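@channel sequence for tomorrow's demo:
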Amino acid sequence: MDTILFFKAALIGLSVAAPVGPIGLLCIQRTLAQGRRVGFVSGLGAAAADACYGAVGAFGVSALTAWFVALRSPLALAGGLFLGWMGWRMLRSRGGGGEAAVARPARSGWAAFASVLALTLANPMTIVSFTAIFASLGARGAGAASPGLMVAGVFVGSAAWWLGLSMGVAAVRTRIDARGMRRVDQFAGVVLLAFALYQLRRWWAG
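structure tokens (generated this afternoon):
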């Protein structure tokens, strides 16, 4: 039973990570600009955030759930501003692809991980989703170890997606020249700014 729950949770983690949104776009851009390691570590930040919120939902820590949900407004504001700042930085990037991209020194793995972790944690309503999903799968009634196994499953499923994505994008990295990378940065910057404006509009509307 625990094994089945683990694989179900892994599929949930994979399905949560797979849709291409601002986090996926950011990881693609980082992989192209700075290499597979930075792209994958960035994705691990999202996987860790999903696991954190999944843990709160799986173990039924109602006080923490209420606290995070109460913080959804300031977190949405902070997340929107952070997305906007990152989009603006990409628009101002000089780009660089092909051999230049390979030679470019990668940014700190911890910085890449932390930035995506913070962006993903800026959506505390994820806790509510995980709480409902885990309850429907019977995590709390299947055994003492089940919630922990399901949280691990969510992390593994999400991490598997980010590993596959970073490896796939890295395979074409050297084929993109500096001009092409500049266009990628501009596109990613515009999209991130659009997501930021959408999130800030939702925050303003309450």
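heads up for whoever presents: Residues 178-205 form the longest helix (28 residues).
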